[in-house]
Amino acid sequence: MSVERVPIKHASGLRRLWEAIKPPPAVESQDQSLSPEERLRRRRLVLSTLAIVVVAAASWGIYEYIASAPMRAEKVYQDGMRLFGAGNFKGAEDRFTDAISIWPHLAAAYLQRGLARKNTNQVDAAIDDFQHALTEDANQAPAHTALGVIYRERGDVTQAMKELTAAINLSGDTDAFYQRGQIHESQGEHQLAIQDYDSAIHDQPDAPYVYRARAMSRDAIGDHDAAEEDRREAIRIERH
Fold first, then answer.
1. Has residue 2 got a pLDDT over 70?
2. pTM of the entire structure?
């Protein structure tokens, strides 16, 4: 995991602060006339003032570094997205972890790390990430969809339906409609499946796999002409 150093970039601010609060310069003749105790007292005053300036500048630098955490985390997160898009799921997972270490409230990083972990068969860790994404941002519909897919694959239909419906209520997520339609179809609820596929196609009309799924449901209720139209549309989309 990369470790970032606190940048030292406040020399000008340090100088301005010192000029504002430093003791006035002593006149040479006056300095010679001062007692040793007075000269020592003045030196201590200068040193203590300088210490205050250094501490104040350092504190401000740390504050600015912390305040910039979301922006720095976003840059690392984008690195992870590029790796994820290239199919490098382990590398992406590491970069998302780095982003989270910089800014632990970046919900998208938990979501994407969960997807990367699911792609490397770390399913329990992926569930934790999706749940953490929802803790940071309750409107993360894709996290609900991802959880619904996992629960469906595990045979927990009740929990899967709960998560997929939550995603649909939040955003009308295409994949959530499709996944819920698949559950309806597996339970013989063909008309409900068709309704979900209709909604998925309305939201994303160029998804051939949804047309193929709807064709199966339409065949199941005897609507073979409409099913054939769906299969032709799926082929048309795939050819383009």
1. no
2. 0.71
Contact 106, 71 (CB under 8 A): no
| pLDDT average, residue stretch 155-161 | 96
Cα dist from 30 to 21, 83, 184, whole Å: 21, 69, 95
**What's the mean pLDDT in 88-102?**
96
Superfamily classification of domain 139-240: Tetratricopeptide repeat domain (1.25.40.10)
Query: Whole-number mean pLDDT of the chain?
Result: 85
Q: Phi and psi dihedrals of 154, rounded to 5? A: -85, -5
pLDDT for position 240: 87
C-alpha angle 87-104-126 in degrees, rounded to nearest 5: 45
Provide the token pair at 78: 């984008």
**Closest to 102 in 3D by CA, of 65, 127, 133:** 65
Judge whether 104 and 88 are in contact, CB under 8 Å: no
What is the sign, positive or negative, of the torsion defined by CA atoms of 36, 42, 45, 50? negative
Q: How far is it, in rounded angstroms, from Cα 116 to Cα 180? A: 23
Task: Write the pLDDT tens digit of every residue in 182-193.
Answer: 999 999 999 999
CA 49 centroid distance within chain: 44
Closest CA to 180 of 170, 171, 166: 166
**Residue 199 identity (one-letter amino acid):** S
Residue ranges matching CATH 1.25.40.10 in the chain: 139-240
Cα angle 25-27-28, degrees, rounded to a multiple of 5: 120
